[in-house]
Amino acid sequence: MKFKHLGYALLGAGYVAAAVFAWNHSRGPAGRDRVTVRLCHWQLEGTVREGLLAVARRYEQLHPEVKVEILVVPETIYRQWMRTQLVGGTAPDLIEYTMYWGRIEELAPRYFAPVTREVAQPNPYNRGTPLAGVPWRDTFLDGMNGPDGYNTLMREYYAPTIAMFTLRLFYNRTLLREITGRDEPPATWREFLALRREVEAFARRNGRVLSTISNSADNSRWMALPVMEGMGSHFSPRIDHDHTLSLSYWELAHGLLRGEWSFRTPEIANGLAVFRELGLASQPGFVQVRRDVALLDFLRGHGLIVCAGSWDASSLKREAPFEVGAFRLPLPGAEDPEFAARTLGPLSDGSVQTGTAFYLNKASGHPEAAIDFLRFLTSVEGDQIFVNVSEWLPAIKGVRPTDFSRRFMPFYDGYYWSANSYFHGTGVEMNMFFLQEMHRLFGPNGSVAAFQDEMDRDLPAYSGRDLRAHLRDSRQAFIGDDVSTAARMESTGRTDRLPASPALLEARHYQTAREVAIAAGRPQPEPGVEAHP
Question: In 3-state terms, what secondary structure has residue 68?
Answer without folding.
Answer: strand
